[in-house]
Structure formats: structure tokens, C-alpha cells
Amino acid sequence: MRNAWVVAKRDLGSYFNSPVFYVVTTVFLMIYSFIFFQILTFFSFQSVQAGQFRGMNVGLNLNDMVIEPSFHNMAVTLLLIIPALTMRSFADEKKSKTYALLLSSPIDLKEIIFGKFLACMTVVTVMVLLSSYNVGFLLILGEPEIGPIVTSYLGILLMSGCYVGIGVFASSLTDNQIIAAVIAFGMSLFMWIIGWAAQAASAEMGELLHYLSLVDHMQRFLKGIVDTSDVVYYLSFILFFLFLTHRVLDSERWR
Fold it and tell me: In whole angstroms, how far apart are CA 113 and each of 11, 56, 205?
């Protein structure tokens, strides 16, 4: 794994020494901040209205009305943003003619792929942590439950890992970064909405579609519940797309 960290450090240097990280992070924080403060404003409005009527404030809960929807919207925003980070993983190597050199290096293919994945996940983790100002803001305003906040961050990072896994795979398919981003976004969105088809499917097929849906496994994390099956699903999802990436690169190595 030492070689994987070498690959990751090389990619992290290219991220932090270029405008990509700063532009993408700024866009992410602007979109998320706007959505968060809109949700918070609506909650404040509801609280004021409820305070005008005795007994109407019973159902108002900071976790349910602010934290849960804000994390849900963060997941949607990351679905849009992460392909812009992962698109350069292998596509940029192909474009800059360093791809053949990378594949012919003594570093194991698995370590190369994991290093690329680790670099993207590190960048995404930094982005998510930068957005944690909302937790401090809410702690000042009220007394939210800490448990659901922690599990929501865990769920967000696991789901982001799935986005990154898809993005790294998409980047291995082409030397065009835009095409890689579009493929990654399309596949991530498909895995997000696949559960919608369950309504028109049979009971068995509906259960399968719900299980395959990325968003369905996120719901329990938002409620403060860490289910082993959800963790296994996300980790299996990531490993599956890293395996597909390995197959693509391995086939190209021997051409």
C-alpha cells in the first residue's frame, strides 16, 4: 500500500496545485450554503408561526427539519460535483501521454487504482469537512442530536466513495475528461434513481431495485442508524467499480 500512497500524493499535488480543487470546492460550498440557509430560514419561519399558537411547536425538530434535508441535498450536490474531480484520474494521464508510462511502472495495478481512488476521496473528504460549519452554526442556535449528525457524515462519505468509484471507472474508459465526467454523472444518477422503478415492478424485483439504489441506503444514516447491510452495500459497490477499473486497465496493459 506504500506505492498506492505515492500515487495518491502525486495526484493530490496536481489537485492542490491547480485551480480545479479550489473552483470545485467553491462551487460546492456556495451551492450547499445556499440550500442550507434556505432550509434553516424555512425552519425559523415555521418556529415563529408555531410559537404564535399554543401547542403547535410539538412537531418541530431541528434534526428532522434542518439536518436531515441538508445532508440529503449535500448528497445530491456531490453527485453533480464529484465527476468534475474524478474525470482527470486516468483521462488526464492518457491526454498527457503519461498513461503508458504509468501502466509500465513497477507499481502493481491495484495500487495504482487504489492510489487514484484515495486521492479523490481525500479531496472529497476535505470538501465535506469544510462544509461542517453548519454543525457549529446549529449548535449555537439550538441543541441538535449529535448522533444523527455523525452517522450522516459517515453515510455521506460512503456514498461519495461510490461516486468516486464510478468516476474513476469512467475516467479509465476514455482520454476525454468531459466524456468521463458525463459518463460518471449519468451512471451515478442512474444508481440514484433506479429505486423509482420499483413502483412498477413486481415485489421481488422492487426489493432488488430498492437495494441497488444508492439513496435508499442513505436514509438510515440520516436517522442516526448505522446498519451493517448498508455499510456492506456501499463498500461492495466501491470495490465492484474498482474491480471494473482494474479489468479495463489490465486489458489495455496487454494490448
Answer: 12, 54, 33
Report DSSP state, residue 105.
Answer: S
Q: Where are the alpha helices (DSSP H) in 108-213?
A: 109-130, 133-141, 146-172, 177-193, 203-212
SS3 label, residue 167: helix
Q: Could you give the 3-state DSSP secondary structure of residue 97?
A: coil
State the Cα torsion 243-245-246-247 to the nearest 10°: 90
Enter the pTM of the model. Answer: 0.90
Q: Which residues contact 87 (CB under 8 A, 6 or more apart)?
A: 167, 170, 171, 177, 178, 180, 181, 184
| Pairwise CA distance, residues 255 & 45, whole Å | 63
Q: Where are the beta strands (DSSP E) in the chain?
A: none
Every domain of the chain and the residues it spans: 2-253
Query: Which pLDDT tens digit goes with each residue over 65-84?
Result: 888 888 999 999 999 999 99
pLDDT digits (tens, 9 = 90+) for 38-57: 888 887 777 766 666 655 54
Determine the distance from the C-alpha atom of residue 31 to the mean position of all C-alpha atoms in its chain, rounded to a whole number: 15
